[in-house]
Amino acid sequence: MSDYQAPRREMLFALRAIGGLEAVLAAHGDDAYDMETAEAVLDEAARFAGEVLSPLNRIGDRQGARWSDGGVVRAADGFAQAHAAFREAGWHGMPARTEFGGQGAPVLLSTAVLEMWKSANMAFSLCQMLTLGAVEAIARHADAALCATLLPPMVEGRWTGTMNLTEPQAGSDLAAIRSRAVPTGDGRYRITGTKIFITWGEHDVAENIVHLVLARLPDAPPGVKGISLFAVPKFLPRDDGSPGERNDLVCASIEHKLGIHGSPTAVMSFGEGGGALGWLVGQPHQGLACMFTMMNHARLNVGLEGVAIGERAYQAAREYALMRVQGRGIGLGEGDSATIIGHPDVRRMLMDMRARNEAGRALAYYTAARMDEAHGHGAGAAAAQALVDLLTPVVKGWCTESAQRVTADGVQVHGGMGYIEETGAAQHLRDARITTIYEGTTAIQANDLLNRKLARDGGAVATALLQRIAAEAETWAAGHVPALAALGRALSPAVAELAATCALQVARHGPQAREAAAATVPHLMQFGTVVGCWLLARGAAAAQAQLDADAAADAGFLQTRIAVARHAATHLLPEAAAAAAVVREGSASTLALDDAQF
Amino acid sequence: MSDYQAPRREMLFALRAIGGLEAVLAAHGDDAYDMETAEAVLDEAARFAGEVLSPLNRIGDRQGARWSDGGVVRAADGFAQAHAAFREAGWHGMPARTEFGGQGAPVLLSTAVLEMWKSANMAFSLCQMLTLGAVEAIARHADAALCATLLPPMVEGRWTGTMNLTEPQAGSDLAAIRSRAVPTGDGRYRITGTKIFITWGEHDVAENIVHLVLARLPDAPPGVKGISLFAVPKFLPRDDGSPGERNDLVCASIEHKLGIHGSPTAVMSFGEGGGALGWLVGQPHQGLACMFTMMNHARLNVGLEGVAIGERAYQAAREYALMRVQGRGIGLGEGDSATIIGHPDVRRMLMDMRARNEAGRALAYYTAARMDEAHGHGAGAAAAQALVDLLTPVVKGWCTESAQRVTADGVQVHGGMGYIEETGAAQHLRDARITTIYEGTTAIQANDLLNRKLARDGGAVATALLQRIAAEAETWAAGHVPALAALGRALSPAVAELAATCALQVARHGPQAREAAAATVPHLMQFGTVVGCWLLARGAAAAQAQLDADAAADAGFLQTRIAVARHAATHLLPEAAAAAAVVREGSASTLALDDAQF
């Protein structure tokens, strides 16, 4: 079982060359975050991730969270202590805005730190992610009194938060929600209903849990326009803010899942004793909009999870490949590597893993940087927000689908040992498998990309992005650096093809809605591949510039950035072309059959 | 948890239209197998698979095989009884040749039956597969006395067989084997050593286990040319053939694996008490050749496992998609499906799964039919054997890689429920994950395809196959049936591209050995995709011919065969083009870095 070491250099390179960290820090407005501080934060986070969270990853997997009668859930050994250390070190509130009591770190920097938590221990990281998502929804939509009660302990991590959307009959389709909320007359509500798939819905790592619950008021219209959001704490806060009386809610069971065993996935039963007390968050019937506040942020972070698990799978595979002696690679002599990294196909898998991970990291960091820009008051804020909206489903969909390939390759590099659970490679595959499902399946991301992003502005934001990519690709292609010229030549037709499929999908939207919907997932994959490869090419250009400018630069590291970008161009871009062909030609066969013919 | 129902109609269609079952039966020479019998065999096998083996699949997964002190291994509840029923019904020896005491069924028919066992309960099926592989090796290489002792109980299934190749330091690289065999002077040998990853290496479902063990004689040359094969029974046969004294071998432990929990994977320790008694199989130092006898057959069957698990994953996903109500698919009205099969992306996944499964089945059955042809004495026997040799690594590599995608999609169709183990979808993903690894990883298959098949004859056998495909594609393209013409037009450039990459790889072999090796896996994937899509197009042509000829034909079923072929052409063939681009352009970046840069 390998340990995780944060890829500090690669992350810092991506933060600067692709995320533009210096500019983000300069615009951030809080002098507390300069480059030196940012590097120190990354170092400390790397240490905490490697020393505290990573060693618990396997324990969490083997032991899992444990449910017992009465709805008590105990986290795996060490998780409660790690959570205490995590909040005492101030990590819990680091990404939260200062106005909610957080440290207000730039999103870009927080994103790198979150990647570390997720690589080190994805199951553990979910508790903070859900809590801060709930913080965001409460801070934006709840009234001042509720914010004053709930936010301080939640930001600090003494209380955690959950997202109670799903019911047995209502998963992707929230219109089918049946949970009910009845006013008590004193400004509160009594909530009844059953919610499933509630991540960290019950546990013993914090003193209270604030459930954000979607439910219907008595006068609610049907469908998604009749859903309201309620804050329903496990223990009702006393006047002094401390957790008081136990609320009428219970964890009925936890799921036996393929992975993320350390993260309890609860069935929550509200109001078996007459109704759990809750407070309305936001306006009546506006619950979906409030929930989306937390969901959009979570989507970016789940995309990041794909990168994080992929990175850990890569590290484990690399370590095994550098250690395992098994035949000498073809064409190698006595002086060459005697370990399996000498085998060309092992190298191919490692390079594929790396190209996917680094493209995914580039997508996530680039989008995070745009979030910082959008939060600012600069001239580009609105344009940055439009890019965030466009890219969020791409980051979520592409990075998590990519993680399926990366973690499968991670097992494959280990050969037979990869199939043995003790090795740890299989856990990454199992953990990664949820990421394409929760916070909206890949199809939901892909439909969001078309229906709510591309089609709403006729593809304008995407077109502007793709024109910029095309222009940069042409510049590289016309330049005199062979490696960059090759990247430019590979990108030019790929981006032209993407512009064409965007136009095709926008044109189909509406008149050929089913043909369009049959192609949204391949289209999202094409989109993510092209944009990801572009960002890696930008990184390569930055690496080349450093090599040109600084004789003392670490040539091995910088040339690796160029090689990874080139690998992405030669191995990933052909997949974009294949996806484009499916977008163009594939819908008819997808829709050809009657239900009875399946 | 869904049950398995053998897709009898689809299998029979593939057996006839793609495998040429009538011709195979006619040439088989045993009047016992006519079409009526074949159909009856399939019906009975389908019943046994569905009623006896399938219900144990989940029990095997949950309970697993259990090891206890002293090296006793108990199979999961019901497995021993099922194995007894299996052999009593005569299924165990069905695929074995009559000269070994088997029923001598045509390979093509046995292949369909084996597919059912593997779909119903992959873990269970491995015991028979390994045993019959051992039977093949013993029958071909052991002397008459050993055959007389071992074969009858093994063919019948009263004794089972294993394949003891791997040692901790010797996995894919058998040259590193250290186990030793010392002659006793009475024609026997004393074997010492430790073997790992021994499938069904110890269990309680049969009265004896014959281990085939690779070990070195005292005078053995180093490397693979110094390995000999020995039969080492758990209980030494008495003169009357019954199992007698316990041999000096013990199961030291069994592995905790990602999947196939019902199949015990043993660490076997030979000779802790001075040496396990064994008999030489074949000539000294010729063990590898003997082992390949059993391995080649196993490779085809592991490829079939990919198809079988994919089929079961498809059935579960289809069932869920037809039952789960969750939003109405875009563009659908009140009268249309209210279940998730109405969602275009769910249909896309189901069609992808199906296209991959049916292409894989076509590849496996086509190759099995060539094995029957090769076993015969017809004029085409040698050519058929050459095709079997060429296609065996393709079937193994392509179908098992394909199963990774199919079983992942199977989880995805289930949404959040797919991640819950009780649903059963995740088991298929876990079970399938071993298939790209054991019996030679995908890279080993791909290297075999290039180094031992394509390069040995300069690509002649492949060229002849591809010329035939090109000619058929042209005929379809020029025909007046639009669906077939579209298939022909899609296949023509794909097969031309495959011919070009075959020539490129053959040219690279030797002078650019590492560049070639970096591209063998994408090349195998391209190869399998094109040949699989061709075979599906053949099926489509046969379906069209039936539609044209017979007004009473089941149009819904036959048009589905055409639609699946079309889906493969529009969704899978673009992947072949992407793989071809990687073969052409991808090796440089794969090989660009030093070990230290990973």
UniProtKB/TrEMBL annotation, chains A, B:
Keyword Isomerase (UniProt): no
Keywords, sorted A to Z: FAD, Flavoprotein, Oxidoreductase
Domain Acyl-CoA dehydrogenase/oxidase C-terminal: 286-452
Entry cofactors: FAD
The family this protein is said to belong to: Belongs to the acyl-CoA dehydrogenase family.
Protein name: Acyl-CoA dehydrogenase
Domain named Acyl-CoA dehydrogenase/oxidase N-terminal: residues: 36-157
Organism placement in taxonomy: Bacteria, Pseudomonadati, Pseudomonadota, Betaproteobacteria, Burkholderiales
Pfam family, one: Acyl-CoA_dh_1
Annotated ranges, domain Acetyl-CoA dehydrogenase-like C-terminal: 468-594
Organism from which the protein derives: Pseudaquabacterium rugosum
UniProt domain Acyl-CoA oxidase/dehydrogenase middle: residue ranges: 163-270
